[in-house]
Design a protein that fits this description.
The structure is a homodimer. By secondary structure, chain A is of the alpha/beta class. Chain A has 2 domains: about 10-130 and about 325-335, NAD(P)-binding Rossmann-like Domain (Rossmann fold); about 135-160 and about 200-320, Dihydrodipicolinate Reductase, domain 2, CATH 3.30.360. Chain A has 9 helices and 14 strands. In chain A, helix 1 (about 20-30) packs across helix 9 (about 320-335), helix 4 packs parallel to helix 6 (about 215-225) and helix 4 packs across helix 7 (about 260-270). Chain A starts with 7 loop residues before the first strand and ends with a helix. At the A-B interface, strand 9, helix 5, strand 10, strand 11 and helix 8 of A face strand 9, helix 5, strand 10, strand 11 and helix 8 of B.
């Protein structure tokens, strides 16, 4: 944003959650122009405090009046809170940037990954949606290849970190791992469909009638909307792995035009926000641990399908940063850059 | 085997390893007719002892003379030991059942999953190979569908347990997890290409020149050999997850003839050695923790590709039991049943 921008009043709804906490850090690290910070949360979490730029901020209850005079309100809370409150932000002339799934598929709400479709913020009417944490790295990597060779289809298996389910997910993994470590009986699953410590759970979020989970359907529909390819054949299985932070995905992609491995690697390396980490001669490929605390999506294991003309790749991203908080802040920066907020 | 079978002299090479230990338990549990057990290992591991049917057996060095009079010799050790010693078993009139990758693709050596191609043991000339721990569940589940609808192609992503790399893999995960738990620096990776605790490593075994790992090429070539489909387009990414025991795979399969989800579920349920665990209405799908200590391959998440006519499924198997020890013992039982050993 330009240095002449006057500072903005910024509110964070869900400031005490896993994404909310990272959002405060990202606002600090990126020197977002904040003149006033309002830390908000549901009634359950209000009353505690969070730190921002060295000062404690008491967490207040997220009520419509808290949005009076706010320029940007980041929602990092439950979908029901976003559904109720994001229109209140818009009504007051602010911009709600929502991390929940509530508004993502609304035709009147832009769904934005700035490196792909930053211009979509021009169409905002007070609410801008941030995609799901698995969608962002998938859409970015697919877009990188589409720009050089077009895109025909993709087959995706995700391996998602427990923090995708917020603090309850992190706490459930930690509690079960402690129990295993100390030989105690495991606490029963609550955040996940089954034990997650020392295990893999091939169920993320609730099942729909078609046998797919909500997480899988999000990945399908959000990817199509961001890429503006409403018929793109992309099919997926989403799984949860005992990793605190860092989502991964194994992707097999078919491009419209032939694409050599070297050209695909170059396309990934050239794409803003992607870093290529791909050197089989040194056993080097991206892992979730490599992305923790970073904003880049790491891509590796680029190779040709041995039975056809498709390309495999493997991508990892920090689900709390680029998969959530960083992307949300980048959306706000995009709004400022375009003089819209 | 028939109750009239005289008992056999059985040797286990690698009796102190992760698979060797389970092999002894499986021989006990299945009441394999053992008149004499010889526990063998490399010079490094010899001298310790193992328990079998309540008795301690001193582990002797695996030398050719140890195979004199042996009917079955199970190899659960390194490939180099199998390469050197399996022919010594054959030369002495015994049958080597080898769990290493050494002989699997040898055209003179049957590669056997009894539920699929038990009759292949008829062609044995003293060595029978047991497939890789990822190949066995994949081949079984593909065969289940092929029998009802033919098989055109498959796309596979595996999530493999650390015990696939034997005791060193188990010890590395445990040591890193203890360090994380206690806030100590993590011991450097040795069994795996990167940190495995709280992480996913998308590299199993060494890379080849084509960008695929040895694990991936095994899965390709072994599946084709077992199914006798040398051109089957099957393509895969193999990953390692921080799970002690239990390999999983996410599979997208194209059958020759249309196959409804209900018919696919029925085909899995009807296949010997597979159990269907697939109830989205109860959030029920197989996990690695569910298969630990069991011999069945669990299958779930059966559903149609939303963009085409392919079917997704998810399978889990105990890599030390059906993926290794149990399959090896079943091969010996098949030999006995057919009066060949």
């Amino acid at each position: 944003m330009s240095s002449s921008s006057p500072d903005r009043v910024v509110a964070v709804v869900g400031a005490t959650g896993a994404v909310g906490e990272v959002l405060l850090r990202v606002l600090e690290q990126r020197s977002f122009p904040v003149s006033e910070l309002r830390a908000l949360a549901s009634e359950r979490s209000a009353g505690s405090s969070v730190r921002f730029r060295g000062e404690e901020h008491r967490v207040e209850v997220a009520r419509p009046e808290a949005f009076d005079g706010a320029d940007f309100v980041f929602f990092a809370a439950t979908g029901s809170l976003s559904k109720e409150l994001a229109p209140e932000v818009a009504r007051r002339g602010g911009i709600a940037i929502d991390k929940s799934s509530t508004w993502r598929l609304d035709p009147n709400v832009p769904l934005v990954v700035p490196e792909i479709n930053g211009a979509a913020v021009e169409k905002q009417r007070g609410i801008i949606a941030c995609p799901n944490c698995t969608t962002i790295p998938l859409a970015m990597t697919l877009e990188a290849l589409r720009r050089v060779a077009g895109l025909r289809s993709a087959v995706v298996t995700t391996l998602q970190a427990v923090s995708g389910a917020g603090l309850p997910g992190l706490e459930e993994l930690a509690a079960q791992q402690s129990a295993l470590h100390e030989g105690r009986p495991l606490p029963a699953p609550s955040a996940f469909a089954a034990q997650i410590a020392a295990n893999v759970v091939p169920v993320c979020d609730a099942f729909g009638d078609n046998g797919y989970t909500a997480e899988e359907m999000k990945l399908l529909h959000e990817t199509r909307k961001i890429l503006e390819m409403p018929q793109l054949p992309v099919t997926m299985t989403c799984t949860r792995v005992p990793v605190p932070v860092g989502h991964s995905a194994s992707v097999l992609v078919e491009t419209e035009r032939p694409l050599e491995v070297a050209a695909a690697r170059a396309a990934f390396a050239a794409f803003e926000g992607i870093e290529l980490v791909d050197d089989p001669s040194r056993d080097l490929a991206p892992t979730p641990a490599d992305v923790v605390g970073r904003d880049e999506i790491l891509v590796g294991r680029v190779r040709r399908d041995l039975s056809g003309d498709r390309l495999w790749y493997w991508e990892c991203g920090d689900n709390l940063r680029k998969g959530a908080a960083t992307n949300a802040v980048q959306i706000a920066e995009e709004v400022l850059r375009r003089g819209l907020g």
